[in-house]
Structure formats: structure tokens, C-alpha cells
Amino acid sequence: MEATHPEPAKAYIDSCPGRTALWRDDSTWAQNLVSTLPGDLASSLYKQYVFRWEKYVKRNGQSRSANIWLRRQVQMITSAIAQFPTYIENLRNEVKRSKLANDLAAQCHNILSSGSEAGASMKSVFEEMMNIPNQWGFTVGVPMQTISPEKGETPAQYGQRVQEVLMASQMARLISDDWWARKLEIAYKRFCEHCRIIAGKVRKGVSAYLSRIGLRDYKERKLANKRALAQMIAKNEITGEEIALLEAVEASVSNPEIRRHELMVRMRGFEDIAQEQGLMGGFFTATAPSKYHAFIKDKKGKAHSNRKYAGANPKQTNQYLGKVWSRARAKLNRLHLPIIGFRVCEPHHDGTPHWHMLFFFRPEHEQLIRFVLADYFTREERSELRVSHFDIGYWASCFVKETGQLSPITDHDLIEQTAKRISPRFDYKAIDPEKGSATGYIAKYIAKNVDGFKVEEDEEAGMAANVTAEAVTGWASEWGIRQFQQIGGPPVSIWRELRRLEQDEETKAGISAAKEAGVKYQRPVKSFLELKAEKPLLEVARVAADSGSWSMFIAAMGGLFCPRKEQPLRLIYKPQENKYGEAVAKLKGITNHIDLTMISRADGWVIAKKGAASAKSGDSRAPWSSVNNCTEDLNDPLNEVKRTVFNHVQRNGIEVDIGGAAAIARGDKIRTNKGEQVWLDKTDIGLQLRISKVVEEYEDGWPGWDYEEIPEPEPERTYADIIKSIPVHAGGFTPPSKEYWTSKK
């Protein structure tokens, strides 16, 4: 905190001696309380506290409500800070995050080296390394890989090898400072946005869905990405074909308009085939208990701080909803109640997610599906809905076990009263075809969460939908939340690959003729049965996808409720090595498993800068001191580059074996036993071998910076309890001893 603090109107405080003493005591207490927080957060909270203190004292002569509010805010922010096993100041800027990422990668590398030298098992080393990301709450995801059984290998041996490959993939990421830097940046950005939610900067009347800073950063990232894409091309080194990368991206589902069209086509296809099969539609809305909401709205639509808020962020709330849904869906499966449709996740004005679900199901299953979802989504904090377990128990007892139908003697009024009381948490509406289609019902929610197309006003935010749509997509990007999810039915990935395939000659001729005549091409209409009698099933599915008929595509894939394992078409993949040396699965096309395969993705495509002769191999690197120049081009055979790298590092006394040289030749960074990083960098004069030294931060800041102009707050001792037992910097990290590894055996 600065030496001068904001305070209520001086004339108001001085007008009463008792009020002066009250402010003196409360301000001292409040300043001490917020002093445990980073400076910017402390300043923001203290200003809000002053406003509330004056408001409550004027209203009833007491400051108790303002003090309770401040104590709760500080507790929630302190809890958010406690998720990081380091001082929060170590994450404040890119320089500090980069240094910390280097330290954490070095810690993992030291564990790997010491365990290897001591002869520890791979599992023991892996478990020891995983302790570090576990302290941060980071998961180490790996891509899908192609791991084929070897000749003479037993199932147990194959399973063991798969586990070892996956462990090696995770360990490779843990020794990468780039991996740690990305994780730390995401975690810190979300922490900052969470603090803004707690501080009231994300709500109706201020900035709905996403804070102003968060929205600004999202727009800047989008603009930077667009500028970068505009400078790149996709080039096929085999055919010589070139495509502007920005045009390719804008022609994909990354384009909001195309994504909205695809979602509506799929939803309409579900509805068409559901009507053919006599299914009905139901619209469900589920939200989290009150303790997950930072702000609530009164009857006039004004946002107020929620006293029940327990400090959860949007990501945690969405994970809660996902966990409830997984349990409810498992229950539906056990009861043999199939459903298909879509789930839309959108934010409340304060960023808290809630779900809209449009499902199709058999009419005789309606009431039981409604009850199961209502039961699961209201189990937590049910008392706040004024509903008891007796009410839910009565609802459950009304179903006849043998049929799953409501008993004739059911008190429907009592059930509807219960349903009305739980409606703030869980609501259900049956779709009436006479009033409108199911697709039309959900169209508003799809558009509002994509681009605001033809939605006049966003009632949740009280603003135009085309304005708030960007904040909604920014919210989903910030918190890593999936907005749309298909429930049941065939996978859309096959549909998209089929649409990539070249059209048949008859269709191409028809399109060409229509274009010459200046009219719109009208595809000859044929039913699924007619096409199935004339063409292979894979071609029928391709025609359905090309014509935009999701209902015909469903039929070609085995029907609405066909299990995934019984669907006739599958994607096929080709193993390809990535920068971690993993044989990742690269999508190639579609197959029917019998006699027909269609390749949708050609080989030879690389990403390159406009006018550049060679492919872009990675992000631009900071210019470290060069060791020597290697003038081989990136397109030379890998083994030549590998030999050149290996011979060079051996001559210069750098401890890298042939495997490390191969990794460098592939474009990867490796770390030597001395803690140095070695990699190849593409420059205008060819390839250069780079070595990075650990860059230490000066105690008094970087030379040339005026620290009178740019103050850096010192870490507060109040964070010491959080990191007491956790090492932060590699310099203070001692790898496990040989005796330790022996005990692990």
C-alpha cells in the first residue's frame, strides 16, 4: 500500500467524534488486512471498502457489514493465491515466469538425472517428477499415439510398454521450459481474471462475462493471431500448391459464421430424424448452487454481491457441472434411457457457467429422464431451494419400476410444485412443435454464444447480443471451457473429413453448368435408400455430408442410437513423429474397415512464411550467443544434420550423445548435464547451433531501467507459509540422493 490511502469524505468523518474514532480503528484494521495481498489488488479492495464503509455507516451508523465484506474478499483472494506454491510476484511478468519455468524444468531434469545415475526404476523417477506439477495442480497431457504390439509380445508386456511410453512422453514435457512457461502463463492469467471476478469487475453494469482487461487482452490476441496468419502460407512440397493460411482458417469452423451454420445444420438434422422416428424434444437448463456465483441479480436486474459465494472460478464451476452430468448420464444408461442432442455452455453475467441442453428421446421416457436430471443437478445445497429429500423421494416413488412410467395415483400437482421450487437450479420445458421447432428454440443460444446473429438483445448482460458475443467467446477462451457439445449420434469429425473430399464428376459438372448459366446449383434429391442401393455406404455418407444433410449422414452411420463401436465408418491415422519423438496419430482419411478407404489429407503440406523457401519450424527465438554456423538447409535429410550436429558438439566439448543430436536435428531443445539448453535456430544464413545460458535477474533490476519510474513491490513475508516446504529455484534444489532412490526400490 502507498503512504496515502483513500478515505471517506473528511467533513463527514470530522462531524462526529465517535465516527472519527470508528474510522481510525477500522482503517488501521483494513490496511493491515489487505497488506497481505499484492499491491494492485490491495489498492482496489481498499477503495471498494472505503465506499462500502461510508455507505453502511450513513445507513445505520455501523461498519460491520463493510468489515465482513472485506474479510470475505481477502479470504477468497488469499485462497486463490494459495494455489501457487510460490510468491505470486514470481508470476507477475513474462521475465519472471520464464525464469521460474526454467527453474522448474531444471528441477525435473535433476530428478531424471539423479534417478538414472542411481539405477532407479522408470516408475519411481516418474512419480518423483510428477510431485512438482502436482503441487501446481497442472495435468501433463499427451497426444494420441500409435503404439503397435511387437511380435511375440504378451498382452501384459504390451500394456507395460504402453505405460512406459506414456510416462516418457510426460517426462519429456516436464523437462521442457516451454511447456512450463505455457502452463504458468495460463494459470496466472486465470488467477488475475478470478481476482477481478471477486473484486466485482465482472458483472452486469460493469463488464459482463469478461473483465475489460480480459476482453482487451482477448481482442489483442485475436488481432495478433490474424496478423501472423496473414504472413503465412500452407505449401505442398510435393505438388507445389500454395494456400494463404488466413484464407484456409477463415474457410474452416474457426470462422464463427461457418461454425454457427454447422451447428444449426447438425441440430436440424437431429430434429428431422427424431420426428421421423416419433421422438420428442425437451429443453433443460442447469446451473450451479448459489455458492458458485460471485454476484446475483435482484428483481430489477441489478447485480449485487452474493454473500454465499465461496470463491470458485468459472473453470471449477464448469468442472462441477461436468461431474454431475457424467453421473446423471451414467444413471440414464443404467436405466436404458437413450438421448441425443446438444449441450450449450454459456456464462451468467458474472462469468459463472450454466448449461442449456436440448435432447430428443422417446415420449414414454420423458418423465423419468426429467426426474433423473432434476435429482442429480439439485443434490448439492438442495435446502436452499426449499426442497427436502422427502419431496424428491416422493417424486421417485411415483414411478412404476417395471415400466418407468408415473403411477396413475400420482399427485401431479405436488410434483409440479417441487419442479417449480427447483427451477432456479434446474428447469425443464417440453418442446411443442405447434409453437415452434426445437432447432428454432436453441438457435438463439447458439447465435448468442458465437456471433450474436439475429439476436437483438442479450438479456443477461442488458446489451446488444452482437456486442456481447465477443465477450462470451473470450470468456470461453480465457477459462478453457467447451461451449458446444454433441450428445450421442455419429462423430462430427467424420462428417468434416467427408466434406473435405473432392466432389464426384456429376456434381462438379452440374455446378459448372449452373455457374455458366448464372443460376444456383440444385442437387438432384435422392433418398437415403435410393443412394444406398446405388453406391457404397462410404460414398453415401460423403454425398450426405457434401449436401449438408446431417439426418442422412446419421442414417449412413447406423442410425440415431447406434453405438460408436458399431458405426460402419472410422477415421484412419498415420503415425508421425513430433518434437518430443512421439509417434503421434496424424489424421489421413476415412475407411469402412473392409474394402474402401478415402484419403482426405495429402502428404507434403508445411507451414511457411510468404516468400520464404523453407517451412517454419517453430516460434522465433531470442538471439543467444552463437557457437558456430551450420549452413545445411532445413530440408536436408535428417541424418546429415544429425551427424553435423553430433560432430560439432563433440569438438566443442558439449555433452550430447547421438540421441540428443537426433533430437536437436528434429528441431527440439535439449538440456545438457550442465543445465545448458542446446538447439538449432534457422537464420538467413542457414542453421545455427545455439546454447542458452541461465539468465539471472539482477537484484536491483535490469541495467538501464529507472526503478524510480517502474517500482517492483518486494514479496511480502505473509506468503512464506504457502511456500515454506517447496523449493522454487534450481539453485536451491537438491536432487534426491542415491540412498533415497535405493529406498524407493
From TrEMBL:
GO terms for biological process: DNA replication. GO terms for molecular function: endonuclease activity; hydrolase activity. InterPro entries: Replication_gene_A-like. The keyword Lyase does not apply. Keywords: DNA replication, Endonuclease, Hydrolase, Nuclease. The keyword GTP-binding does not apply. Residues 98-452 form the Replication gene A protein-like domain. Belongs to the phage GPA family. Possible endonuclease which induces a single-strand cut and initiates DNA replication. This is Replication gene A protein-like domain-containing protein. It comes from Photobacterium rosenbergii.
